[in-house]
Amino acid sequence: MSVIEVNELHKRYRDHVAVHDVSFAVREGEIFGIVGPNGAGKTTTVEIVGGLRRPDGGAVRVLGLDPQRDRTELRRVLGMQLQRSELPDRIRVHEALELFASFYRDPADPAQLLEEWGLARKRDAAFGELSGGQRQRLSVALALVGRPRVAILDELTTGLDPQARRDS
Fold first, then answer.
1. What is the DSSP string of 52-73?
2. How many CB atoms sit inside 10 A of residue 146's CB?
3. The model's pTM
4. Which 3 state secondary structure label does DSSP give 135?
5. CB of 146 closer than 8 Å to CB of 100
6. Closest CA to 112 of 126, 103, 101, 102
7. What is the pLDDT of residues 115-132, one digit of tens each?
8. Contact 117, 96 (CB under 8 A)
9. Which residues share a beta bridge with 19?
C-alpha cells in the first residue's frame, strides 16, 4: 500500500515553474528521498505533500487524505521537519518537546527523544543558544513526538556535522 501518492504535481510562482508534472509513490515502511539541485522544487513538493502549500495541478494523497481538504486529519498522522524551523529564542529544549507532545493523545516520551537525538545534555538550553545542528536535531525530534505514521524530513542533514550525519 502507498502511504504517499503524488500524480502529475504542478506548482508555479508567477513566471517560474517550480514543480512540473512530478509523480511518485511511497510505500509503507519505505524510506524515500527526493534529490536534485537547489531550486529544483524539492521543498515546494514536500510542502505541498504536507499541506503547507496549495498545488496548481495534480493530485496528492497521504494515507488516502487530501492535504488541502483533510488538513486536521493529516496533522494527526503526519510529522514534518522543515528545511528551516524557528522557535522562540528563550524556549528551553525540553519545554519545546513537552509543548509539542501536549498536542497529541499518545505522544512519544520527550526525554527518550532527547536521548535518541543527542540532545539530553542540552535539555535546559534555550533554543537561541543551540548550534545549527542541534536546532536541526530538535526539529526532527519535534516532528516525531506525535508518533506519526508518516514523517517528512526536508534537508535532514543541513547543519549537521559529519558524525551527526552518520548517526542520523
1. SS--SEEEEEETTB-TTTTHHH
2. 21
3. 0.84
4. helix
5. yes
6. 101
7. 999 999 999 999 999 998
8. no
9. 11
Express each pLDDT in 53-97 by its tens digit. 999 999 999 999 999 999 999 999 999 998 777 899 999 999 999
Q: Lay out the sheet containing 2-13: strands in order across.
A: 16-27, 2-13, 57-62
Tell me the one-letter amino acid at 136.
Answer: Q
Amino acid at 134: Q
> How far is it, in rounded angstroms, from Cα 16 to Cα 167?
37
- Provide the pLDDT confidence category of residue 168 given band limits of 50, 70 and 90: very low
Strand ranges, E, within the chain: 2-13, 16-27, 57-62, 78-81, 150-153
Return the C-alpha cell found at 121: 545534555
Residues in the chain, total = 168
